[in-house]
Amino acid sequence: MDVMARFRTVAAAGLALAATSVPAALAQGSLFTAVPVELSNFVLVSAPIGQGERSQLNIYEQRTTKRPCFAVAAGSPAMVDPLLSTFDFTGVCNRYIDGNGYSLRIGGDDLGTRYRLSVVNTGSDIELLATPTKNPSQPTMLVARAGGAASGFVQLKLEPGWTLKRRAYGKKSLGHLYVYRDSAPVAGSSASPAPVEAEQIESSTAPSY
After folding, report:
1. CB neighbours (10 Å) of residue 152?
2. Residue 82: which of 72, 92, 90 has the closest Cα?
3. CA distance 58 to 112
4. pLDDT at residue 6 above 50?
5. In the chain, at which residue ranges do the beta strands (DSSP E only) sit?
6. CA-CA 20 to 30 A from 159: which of 1, 122, 143, 172?
7. Average pLDDT in the chain
């Protein structure tokens, strides 16, 4: 075999190895990372759908001090006035209303395709649950709760260990939030029975990366 033939053989083998190793590398961790946010600029809300028989998670963000994006009343449960719905909030507020705007993440594992965030009215409280979508044997996790029964726009307060982070690609922060926890909760500490009625509306628009 001449020198050029040997070179072509080695090059082809190298390309084949690279092609097989890339998916394995990506499978070891998320393509995206999670970066901290100023939690005081955000509010998680149980927002009624239609006539209010069901609710879904909304997250409102105060981006500037130009004008308030929301107002939270005192008490528990706390009612939320979504002020951003009354004006053009471009550049002032952000509103995350479905799976395009937020998803679940635990440590380095992006669970957006395996869990959904669902608001459940238990009769005595309003709970935000992370429920498995592909493997029903996986646990349902209690993420936040209102602290009592109420109707309308109600604040959901994160359970201990949960927070918000922003999706990032390299050094660039993206327009997507993670409902985040460093590690999975210990069995029984933040788990909840499977929801009877849960809802997360999926948008038909492109994902907000």
Report:
1. 14
2. 72
3. 16
4. no
5. 33-36, 42-49, 54-62, 71-72, 80-81, 93-96, 102-106, 109-110, 115-121, 126-132, 141-145, 154-158, 162-169, 172-181
6. 172
7. 82
Which pair of structure tokens corresponds to residue 111? 């669970």
- Where do we find the tokens 């097989």? 20
Of the candidates 73, 75, 70, the residue with the CA atom closest to the CA atom of residue 59:
70
In this structure, are residues 105 and 165 in contact, taking their beta carbons and an 8 Å threshold? yes
What is the rounded CA–CA span in Å between residue 24 and residue 18?
10
Q: How many CA atoms lie within 13 A of 82 on its CB side?
A: 19
- The answer to whether the CB of 103 falls within 8 A of the CB of 179 is yes
Task: Give the pLDDT confidence of 48-72 residue by residue, as tens digits.
Answer: 998 878 999 999 999 999 999 999 9
Distance in angstroms (rounded) separating the CA atoms of residues 120 and 204: 23
CB atoms within 10 A of CB 33: 18
Q: What is the pTM of this model?
A: 0.77
For residue 170, how far is the Cα from the chain centroid?
19
**Burial (CB count <10 Å: 0-12, 13-18, 19+), residue 51:** exposed
